[in-house]
Amino acid sequence: MIEKSALKKIADRWARGTYALRKDDQLYGHKLVELLRRNYSVNLVPFEDPLDAAIFVVLVDLLKEMEITGAIRILKTPTGPDTLTK
Question: How does DSSP classify residue 23?
Fold first, then answer.
């Protein structure tokens, strides 16, 4: 099981790393850190590597936000999503 403290360490590293980005790109770095911090309480039992878990939860949140804004649409089937469309 992934400990909250492990995700916090990754978020802190990402936050520090954000300042190494070009000024225009720092906004995106801050957004990734925000997405990870928002998911500290997610049950990540299937993961053994905290970095895998961190990337997975951030990507899931990005897809959710993209779907909400209409940037993408995920077609859902009874067994789960099967297609990603623009």
Answer: G
